[in-house]
């Protein structure tokens, strides 16, 4: 942790000034994000719901088209026992933390004409959390883009910003950040869903796709998070300027009684 004298040396300012400025920046970002969520709540919900639905439905649909139509869907029959497992004192906490993230909630699969399973797509607890996080983040991103557009006198910049959000949504849906099969028939536990459409891939290729999926997930999530912070900072500044502009202040004499 930097000492006050070190902060003064590197920034030329007192440490309390630096801390105050950082606090003001955080308040500005929070004000911008809060204003966008209040003004564009409907867009947040609709975009997040659409991305979440596509994350769930596109993988089995794609696999059904390029491999074999799915013929089986089910929820994990063990799920009713999950609350008892979580509350049980007989199972160590560490074992619960290791087991629950990989627990399959439901899955799609297609039987092979030669016996066994041709492909399978399962959604685990960690998959569901990741999908929800991406869906909400993309929803917040689009809400901020259109909120900034309404606050800005020149909304030309927003077209590029909305394109970035669309790219993140597309990456999430089409496989950069979509979890792969966790049932049999895929050859790797986590690979982009686009890679699952091709049979006969070598083990090296599957391992590369698995690593690509993990790295791609972090890159897309980080880029969207940075975009949300920047757009929140921009919206917070624009809303503060608008609220303090003369046109937003009540005219003299309005709303107050005048004494003779």
Task: Characterise the protein shown here.
This protein has 260 residues and is mostly helical. It has one domain. Helices cover 63% and strands 8% of the residues. The protein is built from nine helices and three strands, in the order H-H-H-E-H-H-E-E-H-H-H-H. The chain has helices spanning 4-11, 15-39, 41-66, 82-87, 93-99, 125-151, 157-174, 193-196, 203-244; strands at 72-75, 104-111, 117-124. A three-stranded antiparallel beta sheet has the order 1-2-3. Strand 2 (104-111) and strand 3 (117-124) form a beta hairpin. Helix 3 (41-66) packs across helix 7 (157-174), helix 6 (125-151) packs antiparallel against helix 7 and helix 7 packs antiparallel against helix 9 (203-244). The protein is extended. The model is unreliable at 155-159, 173-195 and 247-260 (pLDDT under 50).
Placed side by side, the strands forming the largest sheet appear as 1-2-3
Quickly give the structural class.
Answer: mainly alpha
Could you spell the SSE succession in H and E letters?
HHHEHHEEHHHH
The biggest beta sheet is recorded as: 3 strands, antiparallel
Q: Can you give the mean pLDDT?
A: 73
Number of helices: 9
Helix content: 55-70%
Radius of gyration: 25 Å
């Amino acid at each position: 942790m930097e000492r006050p004298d070190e902060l003064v040396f590197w920034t030329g300012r007192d440490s309390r000034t630096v801390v105050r400025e950082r606090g003001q920046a955080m308040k500005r970002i929070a004000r911008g994000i809060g204003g966008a969520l209040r003004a564009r709540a409907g867009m947040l919900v609709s975009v997040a719901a659409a991305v979440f639905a596509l994350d769930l439905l596109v993988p089995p649909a794609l696999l059904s088209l390029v491999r074999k139509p799915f013929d089986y869907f089910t929820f994990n029959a063990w799920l009713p026992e999950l609350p008892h497992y979580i509350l049980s004192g007989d199972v160590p906490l560490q074992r619960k933390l290791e087991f629950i993230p990989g627990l399959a909630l439901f899955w799609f699969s297609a039987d092979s004409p030669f016996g066994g399973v041709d492909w399978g797509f399962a959604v685990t607890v960690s998959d569901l959390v990741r999908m929800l996080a991406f869906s909400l983040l993309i929803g917040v991103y689009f809400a901020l883009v259109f909120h900034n557009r309404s606050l800005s006198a020149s909304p030309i910049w927003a077209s590029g910003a909305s394109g970035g959000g669309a790219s993140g949504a597309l990456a999430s849906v089409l496989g950069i950040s979509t979890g792969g099969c966790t049932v049999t028939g895929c050859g790797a536990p986590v690979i982009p869903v686009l890679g699952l459409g091709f049979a006969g891939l070598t083990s090296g290729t599957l391992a590369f796709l698995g690593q690509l999926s993990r790295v791609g997930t972090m890159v897309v999530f980080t880029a969207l998070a940075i975009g949300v912070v920047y757009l929140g900072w921009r919206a917070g500044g624009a809303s503060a300027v608008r609220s303090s502009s003369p046109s937003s202040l009540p005219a003299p004499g309005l709303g107050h009684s005048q004494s003779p």
